Amino acid sequence: xxxxxxxxxxxxxxxxxxxxxxxxxxxxxxxxxIDLSQLGGICVKxxxxxxxxxxxxxxxxxxxxxxxxxxxxxxxxVDYFVSDIYPEIKDFDTHIIVNxxxxxxxxxxxxxxxxxxxxxxxxxxxxxxxxxxxxGGMAFGTSACSAADVVRAVRKVxxxxxxxxxxxxxxxxxxxxxxxxxxxxDAVSLINTLLGMAIDINKQKPILSTVTGGLSGPxxxxxxxxxxxxxxxxxxxxxIGMGGISSWQDAIEFILAGSSAIQIGTYNFIDPTISIKVxxxxxxxxxxxxxxxxxxxxxxxxx
Amino acid sequence: xxxxxxxxxxxxxxxxxxxxxxxxxxxxxxxxxIDLSQLGGICVKxxxxxxxxxxxxxxxxxxxxxxxxxxxxxxxxVDYFVSDIYPEIKDFDTHIIVNxxxxxxxxxxxxxxxxxxxxxxxxxxxxxxxxxxxxGGMAFGTSACSAADVVRAVRKVxxxxxxxxxxxxxxxxxxxxxxxxxxxxDAVSLINTLLGMAIDINKQKPILSTVTGGLSGPxxxxxxxxxxxxxxxxxxxxxIGMGGISSWQDAIEFILAGSSAIQIGTYNFIDPTISIKVxxxxxxxxxxxxxxxxxxxxxxxxx
Amino acid sequence: xxxMLDLIxxxxxxLNQNYILLKLSTTDGTxxxxxxxxxxxxxxxxxxxxxxxRRPISVNYIDKSKNxxxxxxxxxxDGTRRxxxxxxxxxxxxxxxxxxxxxxxxxxxxxxxxxxxxVGTAPMLxxxxxxxxxxxxxxxxxxxxxxxxxxQLDEFAKYGEVYTTTExxxxxxxxxxxxxxxxxxxxxxxxxxxxxxxxxMAVANYAHxxxxxxxxxxxxxxxxxxxxxxxxxxxxxxxNICVCTEGPVFNIKELKWIN
Amino acid sequence: xxxMLDLIxxxxxxLNQNYILLKLSTTDGTxxxxxxxxxxxxxxxxxxxxxxxRRPISVNYIDKSKNxxxxxxxxxxDGTRRxxxxxxxxxxxxxxxxxxxxxxxxxxxxxxxxxxxxVGTAPMLxxxxxxxxxxxxxxxxxxxxxxxxxxQLDEFAKYGEVYTTTExxxxxxxxxxxxxxxxxxxxxxxxxxxxxxxxxMAVANYAHxxxxxxxxxxxxxxxxxxxxxxxxxxxxxxxNICVCTEGPVFNIKELKWIN
Lengths: 303, 303, 259, 259
Ligand SMILES: Cc1cc2nc3c(=O)[nH]c(=O)nc-3n(C[C@H](O)[C@H](O)[C@H](O)COP(=O)(O)OP(=O)(O)OC[C@H]3O[C@@H](n4cnc5c(N)ncnc54)[C@H](O)[C@@H]3O)c2cc1C
Ligand SMILES: Cc1cc2nc3c(=O)[nH]c(=O)nc-3n(C[C@H](O)[C@H](O)[C@H](O)COP(=O)(O)OP(=O)(O)OC[C@H]3O[C@@H](n4cnc5c(N)ncnc54)[C@H](O)[C@@H]3O)c2cc1C
Ligand SMILES: Cc1cc2nc3c(=O)[nH]c(=O)nc-3n(C[C@H](O)[C@H](O)[C@H](O)COP(=O)(O)O)c2cc1C
Ligand SMILES: Cc1cc2nc3c(=O)[nH]c(=O)nc-3n(C[C@H](O)[C@H](O)[C@H](O)COP(=O)(O)O)c2cc1C
Ligand code: FES
Ligand code: FES
What we know:
The complex is a heterotetramer, with two copies of chain A and two copies of chain C. Chain A has nine helices and 16 strands.
């Protein structure tokens, strides 16, 4: 199994298959379906300093080969996570990464610092790209300057592996990636959701309570893949790729484009066992092509 | 039929249903399938000052609910259009809009000026958003400043209706739209294709000869709709909406979001009669909801 | 324990042009997982290009003797229309069982009323059957637009008294379920209901006024069905909570519905 | 004139596990539009979520007496696999006829050779049948990996002499079509070919060396099939031109293949 091992900063994953924040709960919702210990890692639900009720209903719209969501980071806050959720999940035999969000730089930093001491949380993923919250969120991720500010603040208070999750709603994602890198991020992950919209033509109203929401699922895969490839060619830190992965073939595409690890999001809803299938598929592919180490695949696209 | 009439600058369209550049040839390829005189307008293939061979094969990859293309503006140049194609299509009883592209500002302007005198071409669509050419193209469309430069140069030499086609590969599309508006564009059309990528995992090579290409089809609809809505709220000139329209319901969504007219692109490949079906559907919808004038639907989303 | 299972279509009964009844069983004869009234399944509609997400469908009935799961389906859009085309022998992938279930009253002599509206009658059949099996004498009050939308009446009759209303008067009393005379005639201690939201709200208000214990089964837009996407919330007295895991069955006391 | 038509499946013949032969006709008995050898159709695979674009398939044969269009299909990916499941009575939407066609030689006493490789034999059947009808005596040279991939041999035999090669020697001569002894034995004036690109290139080179008039039918990635997307180009001596309208049949003189 060592041939699947991959490092993200100081963090060593047993394999490159992770699950994406906001689509995998806290992992425990999946124990009926799969053996979590097979996963490289789990990014748990977006966590903020304070409790958030999230957006109003409706929060979801189905779209061609994808969906829009407007959850808006509903969560009970970092302290609740530490006191009530962490104890329940800390013994999973996989890496738990907490996805951290905020409305202000101070919130981000404070939230991150409260996670710093958790033994079984070896890293956080800084969500500077959530399109579903009014203040902050995506705004931080759409300018290199404010992205740098957040990363710098968090880096100061957070010692372990720091992954910065990038927004695809930008002209040049490599700019933001480089900003994160230069402020000490250990890795970047991409993409978060694309800002989209859907309309109920009978009610003549937006379907989502928030008018716009975040697009995910297979429909975004070509865009995500392009951004991973661009970012891989722009930074030295590892890239964690995601966006529309629904099969092991998709995962191989992302790895070839430069992803050291991949995350599976929306497709967990359609097939809660998909992560394991993707892992199996990667193994078989490596056998078929005689690839001794997954690292020999990362970014090996011939252009 | 007057209730379907819509104005774009000085141009009066008999109805809001147009076909998108690069997906409808010069119209004549569709005469076996539909009656062109029913269409509000036809945007013909991207035209450049000089003859272009376009990109190498392969130029296409199928993606979930969409496709990537890397045609690269293959065309025989504006003079050939004027001498050989125009005479063949000028008597179609619909409006022919020529989509104009270039690598330099001078090229754009020169190409536009050579179309100025064509009686039966009442307008051009300035493509500052093509992702498939090395120089120029999308570059002009991803900064407000260079977009303004092109529009200004073309506006000087082109008297008739000037539509500026925007790129979705930007952080804030309204910035570019406002730049076009302030330089005298009569309308903006959006979206062009999103930059994407696909990989052949057996060859470990990009599927497209150009590595990346332009994504279109139903998969992009939520993004396009969101951008139309944002742009409609940012400019006073008419917005022509497109991106993934595959049914009359989609077209109504775009109109409610603020499109004065809509264009149908990729779906013409799947159903060459789709434009007529969309038109019929719009008519029925207006009857059903007692809408006396299509203008009363444009941007009428209740938020 | 939730499972992802491939089940086989044993029967597709076209009840009328809008409704079908699918009967599914395991492919290898293993016993179906335990499912309780009010729970639902998430159906993967594999061959509909426009149906990306799974579709939530209530457990209509479990025929334990035949090891069959019944799903009563109304044709709404592409997903349900495709399901309506399933043929005997087709394989369908399901997540099940999902959600909570109705609460069995403590005393079997409680007068229980099960109110279903439209396709919302679906979970009431299984609930009624289970209540009867436990010794209750369920009453069913089924409402619909017209008699064509009143489904499975013979099935319901097996488990209790059946009352009906139709908006056009084509079956039972004319009007809405909340106007049915049985509400005056009998003294109910428990009401269980599923149907269109306006109907359930009317029922909830009625039950509240009469101080009848009342549980409603909510429908909602769902992306996952098992508590991870947080898309299916109901804004309850406890805040925004997921209908798919903390529901679909709620006691009206938890909801902000009563005015 | 190109048409978009709903045709009905009259027969789906599972030739073996990799190939099927679909027979389609009009739903109302109207005569099928004229189609010529080398032309193709674009099939809309309506119920495969992963198949967005139409799929180009060659006209395999037109049975004029029965008003049938035949399509010979190799199962490759989701689209063709779904087509392989079509049942008698299913309706399929097609664009047709598309593309140019093979050129009929001027003199019926010309010695014509039709070379097909793999599923590329598909258009050769109709071409052979038409040539025979016009008074030619076609020779067929069909190559495949093994005998299981040699299809419709009985059909071909109706219209001319059939020679075969297989890579494993399980049928006809062992090796590639370009090594078949008939190439030495007979003096061909015209070669028509369709199959995998390496095979066609070998045939083209052979024909060029022997100064035999040669037409090849190209396959290519297509988005539209009727000349509007400009995705299906071949870089010919005349520049980048569309395979779907100016082809799929090209005289090798136009191509940049010969080295
Ligand atoms: C817990 C739960 C249990 C359910 N049980 C059943 C059941 O037993 N039998 C059954 O037939 N249906 C049931 N439903 C409803 C069923 O899930 C939807 O009808 C189905 O998802 C529609 O899918 P579609 O692809 O056919 O239509 P879509 O294409 O998704 O929708 C078509 C149109 O109908 C609207 N629509 C979609 N879903 C609903 C809805 N739930 N209510 C009202 N309008 C809607 C959409 O907005 C759209 O305009 C249940 C729903 C939930 C949440
Ligand atoms: C003019 C023309 C005529 C054709 N005639 C026939 C015919 O008569 N019978 C027939 O069976 N097929 C024919 N084909 C090929 C047929 O169109 C493809 O096999 C089909 O589109 C594959 O669709 P799919 O969804 O099954 O596979 P996809 O999912 O599209 O592809 C599966 C895999 O096969 C590869 N692939 C796709 N298309 C081709 C191809 N054309 N050649 C090689 N690899 C490919 C893809 O890259 C992918 O890796 C023809 C093609 C053209 C252009
Ligand atoms: C319902 C839903 C909720 C999400 N919540 C979060 C979140 O809290 N934090 C975050 O960084 N990303 C969140 N995402 C984004 C995903 O983690 C992922 O970046 C995105 O969905 C693209 O991957 P996919 O196409 O595989 O889903 C959410 C996505 C969905 C669909
Ligand atoms: C094959 C192809 C070629 C295109 N060529 C052009 C072009 O020459 N000029 C242009 O402005 N847009 C071009 N486009 C973009 C379309 O006009 C349209 O903006 C885009 O495809 C989104 O609409 P759709 O999703 O309906 O296709 C092309 C699109 C496709 C698919
Ligand atoms: S549907 Fe996903 S949490 Fe309920
Ligand atoms: S396939 Fe579109 S031009 Fe040939």
